[in-house]
Amino acid sequence: MKAIIPVAGYGSRLEPHTLTLQKCLLPVAGKPVLEHILDRITDAGITDITLIIGHLGHQVKEFCLSYENANFTFIEQTERLGLGHAVYQGLDHSDESVLIVLGDAILELNYNRLFKSQYSTIGFSPVPDPKRFGIIEINNDRIVRFWEKPDKPPSNMAIIGIYYISSQKDLSEGIKYLIDNNIRTKNEYQLTDAFTVMLDNGHQFRALEIDALLDCGIPKTLLSTNQILLEQRNTNDIHDSAIITNSHLLYCTVSQNCHVEGSELNNVIMLPGSKILHQNLENTIVEYDEVIKSKRVEIIKN
């Protein structure tokens, strides 16, 4: 079985950080989000991985060159036509199963249970902000309806970005039906709409509640995920090239070529080349090449 990971998006909710760094490569607990995802699926035995790239795709390719535990295929999504369209690029239209994992969340779950299902199985989790997610309606453990980010969610049972699909052929036909008939939601070809087509054609879906959703899709959740993972290890994660002097750090990710001096930091993510001088900061992402000092912010671009 292969995995498809769509990472073509712009990451507008994480700007300005994603203007210069692909959102799946933002650091959390010392590693890019994508590396956390790859570690989990390769540990589960999947090493054939297709990445759907677009915005700053060259950065994704460069990162994967250094990742030794998988074989990668890269497909560029030249038009941003939605998640369904992105996934369609990576399907081989066979009856083989496929795992689809989105690139903006770190998920904890029993992969063996997922892979043993004879039915397509969608990971879900209750969330406090269901408008950001696709939503499912469940009868026992069987999914009977899908919604794509509804304005008035009927429940908080959110699709959280992992999908085990028993037949690539069925999914590709569902997406192709949307494309051929120009069926869009919010002007995009949605994976949830393709699942609805599959339901109408008799395809069965099951729901699997995951153990933990560590969302990385907006600044607030990226920071909360950073803190959770570093609390588990009771440590900071500081790159060898970083310089830390006369400072106290708690649950911080400090990237390469960063500099911290005379500061108290709590749950701060520092992107490469950033500096914090004589500050008390918490729950903050410090931008690439940004200098924070003396209670004001100066942006320095090389």
Describe this structure in words.
The chain is α/β, with parallel strands linked by helices and 302 residues long. It has two domains: 2-215, Spore Coat Polysaccharide Biosynthesis Protein SpsA, Chain A, CATH 3.90.550.10; 236-299. 24% of the residues lie in helices and 35% in strands. The strands form five sheets. Strands 1, 4, 5, 6, 8, 9, 10, 11 and 12 form a nine-stranded mixed β-sheet that branches. Strands 14, 16, 17, 19 and 21 form a five-stranded parallel β-sheet that branches. The model is unreliable at 295-302 (pLDDT under 50).
CATH class of the largest domain: Alpha Beta
Distance between the termini: 45 Å
Unreliable spans: 295-302
**Number of structural units classed as domains:** 2
Beta-strand fraction estimate:
25-35%
Shape annotation:
elongated
Q: What percentage of residues falls in helices of 4 or more residues?
A: 10-25%
Question: Can you tell me the CATH topology of the largest domain?
Answer: Spore Coat Polysaccharide Biosynthesis Protein SpsA, Chain A
The DSSP helix count reads: 7
**Major sheet size, sense and barrel closure:** 9 strands, mixed
What's the architecture of the largest domain, going by CATH?
Answer: Alpha-Beta Complex
Q: In sequence order, what are the helices and strands, one letter per element? A: EEEHEHEHEEHEEEEHHEEHEEEEEEEEEE
Mean pLDDT: 91
Give me the Rg, rounded. Answer: 20 Å
Q: In total, how many beta strands? A: 23
Structure classification: alpha/beta
